Amino acid sequence: MSGRGQLQAYTTINIGLTAMIDAGYDRKNPYCTGIVKLEEGPLISAQIIGFDTGHPELIEIGSELKVAFIERGEGEEAKTFLAFEPL
Fold this sequence. Notes:
Elements: E1 4-13, H1 18-22, E2 31-38, E3 43-48, E4 64-72, E5 79-86
Parallel strand pairs: 3-5
Antiparallel strand pairs: 1-2, 1-4, 2-3, 4-5
């Protein structure tokens, strides 16, 4: 997989799951999740980073994205999460 795709749909979340609240997201710092159509054709859902989530109206469907990985936690509790960011 190339790790590239286009944003097909998205939403910003102000009140998230406990894990996202623990990661620092809240009403003042929302996060974005979306559906990305990979260059190879499949659709995948992931967190979308690199946009101003305080102004979701500026996020454009069709934006070109590339894969990114988010590390959360420390030591044995560390986990890697899939995300996408603008090219």
